[in-house]
Design goal:
The protein is an alpha+beta fold and 117 residues long. The protein has one domain: HIT family, subunit A, CATH 3.30.428.10. It has three helices and five strands; from the N terminus they run αβββαβαβ. It starts with 5 loop residues before the first helix and ends in an 11-residue tail after the last strand. Bound molecules: guanosine-5'-monophosphate.
Length: 117
């Protein structure tokens, strides 16, 4: 789980991605397999594998993801209608890439709860 992921390659521009935002701490790009009309991933450049690995030293980088999410939601024109921010953790959470990331999902009314009863 401490190994590099595909997201490190996106950060390094070793594989292409539709990047919509970048600064010194964060990157946001379109999900390759969107689940809604707008589906972006917001990631810290410094890799943290899962929420289980978060420490107090990560507060600034992770808090910054919300600032980026707010900014790109506005740019994408979905802020007023609304959107969902999701962070999956490990197998039961549905995490498939072990570089912590925030999904920004929008563009339609989203169902809740996100699992079958
Ligand atoms: P998770 O399932 O870990 O919460 O979310 C990982 C997300 O990364 C998935 O929604 C998946 O579609 C997306 N993803 C996986 N590989 C790539 C890739 O190479 N490029 C992009 N843009 N998205 C990816």
């Amino acid at each position: 789980m401490s190994d590099e992921t595909i997201f490190d390659k996106i950060i390094a521009r070793e594989i292409p991605a539709d990047i919509v935002y970048e600064d010194d701490r964060a990157l946001a790009f379109r999900d390759i397999n969107p689940t809604a009309p707008t589906h972006l991933l917001v990631i810290p450049k410094r890799r943290i594998a899962t929420v289980n690995d978060v420490t107090p030293e990560d507060e600034a980088d992770l808090g910054h993801l919300f600032v980026v999410a707010r900014e790109i939601a506005e740019r994408e024109g979905v802020a007023e209608d609304g959107y969902r921010l999701v962070v999956n953790c490990n197998a039961h959470g549905g995490q498939s890439v072990y570089h912590i990331h925030m999904h920004l999902i929008a563009g339609q009314a989203l169902g809740w709860p996100p699992f079958p009863r």
